[in-house]
Give the backbone structure.
Amino acid sequence: MSDFKDRTIVVTGAGRGIGKAIAASFVAQGAKVAVISRTEANSQSAAEEMNASGPGCAKAYAVDISDFAAVGEVGKQIIEDLGPVSILVNNAGVTRDGLALRMKEEDWDTVLDTNLKGAFNTVKAFQRNLLKQEGARIINISSVIGLMGNAGQSNYAASKAGLIGLTKALAKEFAGRAVTVNAVAPGFIDTDMTNELSEEQQQGVLSTIPLKSFGKVDDIAASVLFLAGSGARYITGQVLTVDGGMVM
Protein backbone atom coordinates (compact mmCIF):
# COMPACT_ATOMS: atom_id res chain seq x y z
CA MET A 1 0.00 0.00 0.00
CA SER A 2 1.24 3.52 -0.81
CA ASP A 3 2.60 5.64 2.04
CA PHE A 4 0.49 8.48 0.69
CA LYS A 5 -2.92 7.02 -0.12
CA ASP A 6 -5.69 9.33 1.16
CA ARG A 7 -3.19 11.61 2.94
CA THR A 8 -3.51 15.36 2.48
CA ILE A 9 -0.42 17.00 1.00
CA VAL A 10 0.27 20.66 0.23
CA VAL A 11 2.65 21.66 -2.56
CA THR A 12 3.40 25.32 -3.24
CA GLY A 13 4.48 26.57 -6.64
CA ALA A 14 2.73 23.55 -8.12
CA GLY A 15 1.34 25.17 -11.23
CA ARG A 16 4.30 24.18 -13.39
CA GLY A 17 7.84 22.79 -13.45
CA ILE A 18 9.27 21.05 -10.41
CA GLY A 19 6.29 21.78 -8.17
CA LYS A 20 3.84 20.37 -10.69
CA ALA A 21 5.91 17.18 -11.02
CA ILE A 22 6.02 16.79 -7.23
CA ALA A 23 2.28 17.27 -6.86
CA ALA A 24 1.54 14.87 -9.74
CA SER A 25 3.75 12.21 -8.16
CA PHE A 26 1.76 12.36 -4.93
CA VAL A 27 -1.55 12.21 -6.84
CA ALA A 28 -0.25 9.12 -8.65
CA GLN A 29 0.26 7.56 -5.22
CA GLY A 30 -3.38 8.14 -4.24
CA ALA A 31 -2.92 11.31 -2.18
CA LYS A 32 -5.20 14.33 -1.84
CA VAL A 33 -3.04 17.24 -3.01
CA ALA A 34 -3.55 20.97 -2.56
CA VAL A 35 -2.02 22.51 -5.68
CA ILE A 36 -0.96 26.05 -4.78
CA SER A 37 0.12 28.63 -7.34
CA ARG A 38 0.14 32.42 -7.45
CA THR A 39 -2.36 32.43 -10.32
CA GLU A 40 -5.68 30.63 -10.47
CA ALA A 41 -5.17 29.70 -14.11
CA ASN A 42 -1.93 27.82 -13.43
CA SER A 43 -3.17 26.01 -10.33
CA GLN A 44 -6.49 25.05 -11.93
CA SER A 45 -4.90 23.79 -15.14
CA ALA A 46 -2.36 21.70 -13.23
CA ALA A 47 -5.01 20.24 -10.91
CA GLU A 48 -7.27 19.29 -13.81
CA GLU A 49 -4.39 17.52 -15.55
CA MET A 50 -3.56 15.56 -12.39
CA ASN A 51 -7.17 14.61 -11.76
CA ALA A 52 -7.39 13.19 -15.26
CA SER A 53 -4.67 10.67 -14.44
CA GLY A 54 -5.55 9.83 -10.79
CA PRO A 55 -5.85 7.72 -8.68
CA GLY A 56 -5.60 10.46 -6.05
CA CYS A 57 -7.10 13.90 -6.40
CA ALA A 58 -5.86 17.46 -6.72
CA LYS A 59 -7.56 20.71 -5.77
CA ALA A 60 -6.39 24.13 -6.95
CA TYR A 61 -5.70 27.11 -4.69
CA ALA A 62 -4.40 30.51 -5.78
CA VAL A 63 -2.49 32.66 -3.31
CA ASP A 64 0.59 34.87 -3.09
CA ILE A 65 2.58 32.95 -0.51
CA SER A 66 4.47 36.09 0.53
CA ASP A 67 1.18 37.35 2.05
CA PHE A 68 1.08 35.99 5.60
CA ALA A 69 -2.62 36.63 6.23
CA ALA A 70 -3.72 35.29 2.85
CA VAL A 71 -1.73 32.08 3.32
CA GLY A 72 -3.32 31.60 6.72
CA GLU A 73 -6.80 31.85 5.23
CA VAL A 74 -5.98 29.46 2.41
CA GLY A 75 -4.53 27.05 4.96
CA LYS A 76 -7.82 26.97 6.84
CA GLN A 77 -9.69 26.35 3.59
CA ILE A 78 -7.40 23.48 2.58
CA ILE A 79 -7.88 21.71 5.90
CA GLU A 80 -11.65 22.21 5.63
CA ASP A 81 -11.71 20.90 2.05
CA LEU A 82 -9.21 18.04 2.20
CA GLY A 83 -8.71 17.21 5.87
CA PRO A 84 -5.67 17.37 8.16
CA VAL A 85 -2.40 18.07 6.33
CA SER A 86 0.41 15.61 6.98
CA ILE A 87 3.00 16.68 4.36
CA LEU A 88 4.02 20.20 3.34
CA VAL A 89 6.31 20.81 0.37
CA ASN A 90 7.60 24.38 0.09
CA ASN A 91 8.58 24.64 -3.55
CA ALA A 92 7.40 28.11 -4.67
CA GLY A 93 10.19 30.37 -5.81
CA VAL A 94 11.04 33.24 -8.12
CA THR A 95 14.19 34.84 -9.54
CA ARG A 96 15.04 38.49 -10.16
CA ASP A 97 18.63 38.17 -11.28
CA GLY A 98 21.17 40.99 -11.41
CA LEU A 99 24.52 41.99 -10.01
CA ALA A 100 24.30 43.19 -6.41
CA LEU A 101 25.79 46.56 -7.35
CA ARG A 102 22.80 47.28 -9.58
CA MET A 103 20.07 45.25 -7.86
CA LYS A 104 16.91 47.15 -6.98
CA GLU A 105 15.51 46.88 -3.48
CA GLU A 106 12.21 45.59 -4.88
CA ASP A 107 14.01 42.72 -6.65
CA TRP A 108 15.72 41.74 -3.40
CA ASP A 109 12.46 41.93 -1.45
CA THR A 110 10.40 40.02 -4.02
CA VAL A 111 12.78 37.05 -4.03
CA LEU A 112 13.28 36.90 -0.25
CA ASP A 113 9.56 37.41 0.44
CA THR A 114 8.54 34.59 -1.89
CA ASN A 115 11.33 32.05 -1.51
CA LEU A 116 12.05 32.37 2.21
CA LYS A 117 9.23 34.24 3.93
CA GLY A 118 6.74 32.26 1.85
CA ALA A 119 8.01 29.02 3.38
CA PHE A 120 7.74 30.53 6.86
CA ASN A 121 4.17 31.60 6.08
CA THR A 122 3.07 28.13 5.02
CA VAL A 123 4.75 26.49 8.00
CA LYS A 124 2.90 28.89 10.29
CA ALA A 125 -0.38 28.13 8.51
CA PHE A 126 -0.07 24.36 8.98
CA GLN A 127 2.28 23.83 11.94
CA ARG A 128 -0.32 23.05 14.61
CA ASN A 129 -2.00 20.66 12.21
CA LEU A 130 1.29 18.97 11.23
CA LEU A 131 2.40 18.50 14.82
CA LYS A 132 -0.70 16.42 15.48
CA GLN A 133 -0.21 14.06 12.51
CA GLU A 134 1.69 10.79 12.74
CA GLY A 135 4.62 10.71 10.33
CA ALA A 136 4.27 14.36 9.31
CA ARG A 137 6.86 15.85 6.99
CA ILE A 138 8.04 19.28 5.86
CA ILE A 139 10.22 19.35 2.75
CA ASN A 140 11.73 22.61 1.53
CA ILE A 141 13.01 22.95 -2.03
CA SER A 142 16.27 24.89 -1.81
CA SER A 143 18.94 24.99 -4.54
CA VAL A 144 22.62 24.28 -5.07
CA ILE A 145 22.89 28.05 -5.49
CA GLY A 146 22.13 28.33 -1.79
CA LEU A 147 25.16 26.12 -1.13
CA MET A 148 27.72 27.58 -3.52
CA GLY A 149 26.42 31.03 -4.53
CA ASN A 150 26.29 32.41 -8.04
CA ALA A 151 27.26 35.77 -9.53
CA GLY A 152 24.18 37.81 -10.38
CA GLN A 153 21.95 35.88 -7.98
CA SER A 154 22.75 37.30 -4.54
CA ASN A 155 19.04 37.57 -3.69
CA TYR A 156 18.26 34.03 -4.87
CA ALA A 157 21.34 32.56 -3.17
CA ALA A 158 20.49 34.30 0.09
CA SER A 159 16.89 33.07 -0.02
CA LYS A 160 17.86 29.47 -0.73
CA ALA A 161 20.64 29.46 1.87
CA GLY A 162 18.14 30.90 4.33
CA LEU A 163 15.77 28.09 3.50
CA ILE A 164 18.44 25.58 4.52
CA GLY A 165 18.88 27.40 7.83
CA LEU A 166 15.13 27.38 8.35
CA THR A 167 15.07 23.65 7.60
CA LYS A 168 17.67 22.85 10.24
CA ALA A 169 16.09 25.05 12.90
CA LEU A 170 12.61 23.63 12.34
CA ALA A 171 14.00 20.09 12.35
CA LYS A 172 15.25 20.68 15.90
CA GLU A 173 12.06 22.41 17.02
CA PHE A 174 9.68 19.76 15.64
CA ALA A 175 11.72 16.62 16.38
CA GLY A 176 10.00 16.14 19.73
CA ARG A 177 6.77 15.46 17.85
CA ALA A 178 8.50 13.14 15.35
CA VAL A 179 7.94 15.63 12.51
CA THR A 180 10.89 15.53 10.13
CA VAL A 181 12.06 18.59 8.21
CA ASN A 182 14.45 18.24 5.28
CA ALA A 183 15.51 20.14 2.18
CA VAL A 184 16.15 19.13 -1.41
CA ALA A 185 18.70 21.20 -3.32
CA PRO A 186 18.24 20.76 -7.08
CA GLY A 187 21.04 21.54 -9.48
CA PHE A 188 20.28 22.59 -13.05
CA ILE A 189 16.96 20.98 -13.94
CA ASP A 190 15.40 20.87 -17.40
CA THR A 191 12.66 23.48 -16.95
CA ASP A 192 11.45 26.69 -18.60
CA MET A 193 14.37 28.49 -16.93
CA THR A 194 17.11 26.30 -18.42
CA ASN A 195 15.37 26.27 -21.78
CA GLU A 196 15.83 30.05 -21.92
CA LEU A 197 19.62 29.69 -21.77
CA SER A 198 21.57 30.00 -25.00
CA GLU A 199 23.38 26.96 -26.39
CA GLU A 200 26.68 28.48 -25.25
CA GLN A 201 25.33 29.03 -21.73
CA GLN A 202 23.96 25.50 -21.55
CA GLN A 203 27.29 24.03 -22.59
CA GLY A 204 29.03 26.15 -19.97
CA VAL A 205 26.74 24.81 -17.26
CA LEU A 206 27.05 21.23 -18.49
CA SER A 207 30.82 21.46 -18.23
CA THR A 208 30.44 21.88 -14.44
CA ILE A 209 28.21 18.80 -14.04
CA PRO A 210 30.08 15.47 -13.71
CA LEU A 211 27.09 13.51 -15.07
CA LYS A 212 27.10 15.80 -18.14
CA SER A 213 23.33 16.32 -18.32
CA PHE A 214 20.61 18.46 -16.82
CA GLY A 215 18.33 16.83 -14.29
CA LYS A 216 14.65 16.16 -14.89
CA VAL A 217 11.74 17.39 -12.80
CA ASP A 218 10.94 13.75 -12.03
CA ASP A 219 14.36 13.41 -10.37
CA ILE A 220 13.32 16.03 -7.83
CA ALA A 221 9.86 14.54 -7.40
CA ALA A 222 11.38 11.13 -6.66
CA SER A 223 13.65 12.65 -4.02
CA VAL A 224 10.71 14.40 -2.36
CA LEU A 225 8.67 11.18 -2.34
CA PHE A 226 11.56 9.40 -0.63
CA LEU A 227 11.91 12.04 2.09
CA ALA A 228 8.13 12.11 2.58
CA GLY A 229 7.83 8.32 2.87
CA SER A 230 8.18 5.88 5.73
CA GLY A 231 11.68 4.90 4.60
CA ALA A 232 12.95 8.35 5.61
CA ARG A 233 11.42 8.40 9.09
CA TYR A 234 14.86 8.69 10.75
CA ILE A 235 16.19 11.45 8.49
CA THR A 236 15.78 15.07 9.56
CA GLY A 237 17.61 18.37 9.24
CA GLN A 238 19.37 17.21 6.07
CA VAL A 239 19.96 18.69 2.62
CA LEU A 240 19.70 16.23 -0.26
CA THR A 241 21.50 17.61 -3.30
CA VAL A 242 20.13 16.36 -6.63
CA ASP A 243 22.62 17.95 -8.97
CA GLY A 244 24.52 15.40 -11.04
CA GLY A 245 27.55 15.92 -8.82
CA MET A 246 27.96 19.71 -9.12
CA VAL A 247 28.74 20.40 -5.46
CA MET A 248 30.27 17.14 -4.30
Summary: Residues 105-130 form the longest helix (26 residues). The CA atoms of residues 172 and 237 lie 7 Å apart. The chain has a mean pLDDT of 96.
